[in-house]
From TrEMBL:
Xref: Pfam families: AFG1_ATPase
Gene this chain is encoded by: zapE
Swiss-Prot/TrEMBL keywords: ATP-binding, Cell cycle, Cell division, Nucleotide-binding
GO biological process: cell division
Protein name per the record: Cell division protein ZapE
Length: 345
């Protein structure tokens, strides 16, 4: 069945089977609710990392904004125009430094008639649902395409995205993307990237890379570990949430198994109406495919800012040392950061 919001009660994500049409996927290509009000002015620059202020000023110019609060000067000044030698900007930096906030700020600030904002997986899923040519026709002539969490995890994604972006750039579309990996290193450690070097280089040539350094803002006020509840505390937390809203309650193993049967583009719909996610008996993940699906699920939960309550192993330990040493290390670390934040929210 397709999940629908309820006033209150307990539901099981493992029993939800959402369906999403191509039209619904397109309609969802806007910034997540937590970034509805994201602006350049509300981006908190860390003075310890000058690249943040530099990135902010470059992106202001890219978006066409005419003024910015100059923190160091203490007054409004006209933003400097940067040479527009490339049709896109690529925000390269670690997780938790505000890249998505800045990407959403570009979206909100750019005076564009047609603009879209989505995660990398949403765009590739749209191609799968609508077909490549229809997707090109949909986006052709658009003013701006924002791509969050840009990753090339397999050759198919590489070919699809390089072709798609190439066609859109030629039609005048401007691009803005974020990633934890520089564009010339996408795919590194995941598949035989050297076999697709020409395609990767062709795509990266469309972007002006802007480096953003900093520390993970999500962990500045946290103890570095995800919250873990006792069985009694968990039952109370689920009951309290279910008294006023819709709360989920699933064993970790059941949730992981269910994610294998739902396309990642539908994960957000698994969370429809929820005010809290409950996960019992968390254990360490052994299978990389399961781990990557869980990362995609947590990304959607974080976008929706839904608190997580859990028992068992601390959620910041679900990705083992072997996984953290592999090509998906940055994905797992980003998910860990988000898990810590959501279990403390």
């Amino acid at each position: 069945m397709t999940p629908t919001a309820a006033a209150a009660g307990i539901v099981h994500i493992g029993q939800r089977a959402p369906q999403v049409s191509g039209a619904e996927m397109v309609a969802a290509l806007v910034p997540p609710p937590q970034f509805n009000g994201a602006t350049f002015e509300s981006y908190r620059v860390d003075p310890a990392f000058p690249s943040q202020q530099e990135a902010k000023e470059k992106l202001l110019a890219f978006s066409g904004a005419t003024s910015v609060v100059a923190e160091r000067a203490g007054f409004f000044r006209r933003a400097k125009k940067m040479p527009e030698t490339k049709p896109g900007v690529y925000l390269d930096g670690g997780f938790g430094v505000g890249k998505t906030h800045l990407l959403a700020a570009i979206y909100h600030a750019m005076p564009a008639r047609r603009k879209y904002f989505g995660s990398f997986i949403e765009y590739t899923a749209l191609v799968g649902a609508m077909g490549y040519q229809k997707t090109v026709e949909l986006f052709r002539g658009s003013d701006l395409l924002c791509i969050d969490e840009f990753e090339l995890d397999d050759p198919g994604d590489t070919m699809v995205m390089t072709r798609l972006l190439g066609e859109l750039v030629s039609s005048g579309t401007r691009l803005a993307a974020t990633s934890n990996t520089p564009p010339n290193a996408l795919g590194e450690g995941r598949f035989a990237a050297q076999d697709f070097l020409r395609e990767i280089q062709s795509m990266s040539a469309s972007f002006e890379t802007i480096r953003i350094d900093g520390t993970d803002y999500r962990q500045r006020a946290l103890d570095g570990h995800a919250g873990v509840l006792t069985d009694t505390e968990y039952e109370r937390a689920v009951a309290d949430a279910a008294a006023t809203g819709l709360a989920s309650d699933d064993p970790f193993a059941t949730l992981i198994e269910h994610l294998a049967h739902v396309h990642p583009s539908r994960y957000l719909r698994l969370l429809d109406g929820l005010v809290q996610i409950g996960i019992r008996d968390v254990t360490q993940l052994e299978d990389q495919s399961s781990a990557l699906r869980f990362v995609a699920f947590i990304d959607r939960a974080y976008d929706a800012q839904i608190p997580i309550r859990a028992t068992g192993l601390s959620l910041d330990q679900v990705f083992g040392d072997e996984m953290l040493a592999g090509g998906y290390r940055k994905k797992y670390l980003r998910a860990t950061s988000r898990l810590i934040a959501l279990t403390h929210s």
